[in-house]
């Protein structure tokens, strides 16, 4: 893999017009925000994991066929502390840092007393979240940073714990048609209980909507000191879907990691002997439904989407057989050239689960209650109110899934994503048809496309009527990086905008439509 994974980015904070070739549709008006790690070494110190890098925010503003671009480092407290010290002094998930480079035992023992419950970083390098009318850079800790989506200026630091009982929070929320935001966090060992918390931030036109956040429901963790790790969850019109997987945070190990001189990521544990539980929560009552669903061992980072049909909930996820994906992004690993096939890489499967939510009275044990004709997914009754669910595998080697979000929670057909057949680093993107199981591709030599984001055309009559935006890192000598605009139906390129300066590999993005 290319060595630019560990090269520090440079920011381009002033808006600069990109050079457009082709024709950008006139209706495309708004700003694409992208977020990802950008600084990997400070002074003589370096991060060990790619996800740990300090956040670089990038924006592409589309207006009347023109594109302007800018990028800026998130001025988090983490950034300021590291830059002031000229070394990494704030710990991240894959890199444990020490304010005193000597790391002597006495010093560590004293400092450990302040680290029993880790005070996490505010280096929000994963995604952007909209709460009310405000935008926040986020990772998965209890800290998010408000940003100006136009200038990319860093603004207030927000601690979820001031408003909600969550020590960790997902960076993939859901938004309803009214503009309310739903997200999920983990509450660790509060009053002797560890639980998962779904919360709602209301659609308020004024500032500080996050201060009006309310808990919608809680789900008890199946083990007090080892809550499940998760990166996203599902939502339909009537339900929330949470996958409690056997990939866990060991809280006691995390509390002593600093003292032991190991990173927090080493405190994640995969338990292949355990099943995966699928929790279904009624949005109206805030209560988990009594039926219990479970499936075999798997690790899920990204939900594709979910919908209801004829007494069933259909859930699409990208699933791995183990937790090896995180290890693929250690910088020591990324600097290696694995050749055409990396034997240690386990590619993901796009899985479709179907959960019957109708009564199982009168249904015999051993009977499959899935009645949808277009899927081979099954849900076999084991005893009253308990189902073993087996997924249909729709395709493999597909990640960072995005749909037409207007259909979130509704039945959908098309998914856009990164192709990760041979490596966790994608060199092409695809459009997948869940009905025909066909995939069409876009790629270019020596180019690395980001997660593709679909933008629907106003008043579109079909699901894929719109464009797909993809930020592309171009490693061809003498060529500029660019943002590609693809037709949502044909997946053919209709325009590209070459930027001045450099683009870097990122993680997730958010499109703000100009109204």
Which key phrases capture this entry?
single chain; 515 residues; mainly beta; 6-stranded antiparallel sheet; 38 strands; 7% helix
Explain how this protein is built.
There is one protein chain. The chain contains 5 helices and 38 strands. It is mainly beta and 515 residues long. The protein has one domain (3-513). The strands form 9 sheets. Strands 2, 33, 34, 35, 36 and 37 form a 6-stranded antiparallel β-sheet that branches. A 6-stranded mixed β-sheet has the order 17-18-21-22-27-26, with no helix packed on it.
Short description:
The protein has 515 residues and is mainly beta. The chain has one domain (3-513). Mean pLDDT is 93; it is low at 104-117.
Total number of distinct structural domains = 1
Q: Round the Cα radius of gyration to an integer and report it.
A: 22 Å
How many individual helices? Answer: 5
Main pleated sheet = 6 strands, antiparallel
Overall shape: it is globular
- Strand fraction equals 35-45%
Mean pLDDT: 93
Q: Which structural class do you get from the secondary structure elements? A: mainly beta
Low-confidence stretches: 104-117
* Distance, first to last CA: 41 Å
State the helicity in percent bands.
under 10%
Total beta strands: 38
């Amino acid at each position: 893999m290319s060595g630019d994974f560990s090269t520090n980015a440079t920011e381009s904070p002033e808006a600069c017009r990109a050079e457009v070739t082709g024709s950008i549709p006139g209706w495309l008006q708004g700003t694409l925000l992208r977020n990802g790690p950008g600084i990997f070494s400070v002074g003589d110190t370096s991060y060990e994991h790619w996800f740990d890098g300090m956040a670089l925010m990038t924006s592409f503003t589309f207006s009347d066929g023109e594109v302007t671009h800018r990028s800026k480092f998130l001025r988090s407290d983490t950034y300021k502390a590291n830059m002031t010290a000229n070394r990494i002094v704030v710990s991240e998930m894959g890199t444990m840092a020490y304010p005193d480079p000597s790391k002597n035992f006495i010093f560590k023992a004293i400092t450990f007393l302040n680290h029993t419950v880790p005070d996490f970083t505010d280096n929000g390098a994963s995604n952007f979240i909209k709460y009310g009318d405000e935008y926040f850079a986020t990772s998965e800790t209890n800290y998010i940073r408000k940003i100006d989506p136009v200038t990319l200026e860093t603004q207030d630091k927000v601690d979820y714990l001031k408003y909600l009982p969550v020590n960790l929070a997902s960076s993939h929320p859901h938004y309803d048609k009214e503009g309310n935001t739903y997200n999920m966090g983990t509450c660790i060992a509060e009053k002797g209980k560890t639980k998962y918390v779904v919360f709602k931030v209301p659609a308020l036109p004024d500032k500080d909507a996050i201060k009006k956040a309310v808990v919608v429901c809680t789900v008890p963790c199946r083990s007090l000191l080892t809550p499940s790790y998760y990166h996203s969850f599902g939502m339909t019109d009537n339900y929330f879907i949470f996958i409690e997987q056997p990939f866990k945070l060991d809280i006691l190990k995390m509390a002593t990691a600093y003292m032991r001189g190991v990173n927090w990521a080493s405190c994640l544990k995969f338990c292949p002997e355990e099943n995966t539980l699928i929790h279904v929560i009624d949005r109206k009552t805030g209560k988990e439904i009594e039926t219990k669903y479970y499936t075999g061992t798997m690790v899920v980072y990204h939900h594709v989407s979910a919908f209801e049909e004829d007494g069933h909930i259909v859930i699409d996820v990208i699933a791995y057989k183990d937790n090896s994906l995180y290890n693929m992004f250690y910088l020591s690993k990324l600097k290696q050239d694995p050749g055409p096939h990396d034997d240690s890489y386990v590619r993901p499967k796009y899985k479709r689960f179907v959960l019957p939510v109708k009564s199982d009275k009168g249904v015999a044990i051993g009977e499959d209650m899935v009645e949808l004709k277009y899927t081979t997914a099954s849900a076999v009754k084991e005893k009253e109110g308990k189902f073993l669910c087996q997924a249909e595998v729709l395709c493999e080697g597909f990640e960072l899934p995005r749909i037409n979000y207007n259909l979130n929670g509704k039945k959908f057909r098309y998914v856009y994503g990164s192709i990760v057949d041979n490596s966790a680093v994608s060199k092409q993107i695809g459009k997948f048809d869940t009905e025909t199981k066909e995939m069409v591709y876009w790629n270019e030599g020596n180019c690395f496309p980001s997660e593709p984001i679909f933008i629907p055309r106003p008043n579109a009559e079909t699901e894929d009527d719109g464009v797909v935006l993809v930020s592309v890192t171009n490693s061809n000598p003498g060529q500029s990086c660019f943002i590609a605009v693809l037709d949502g139906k044909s997946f053919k390129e209709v325009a590209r905008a070459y930027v001045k300066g450099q683009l870097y590999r990122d993680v997730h993005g958010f499109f703000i439509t100009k109204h």
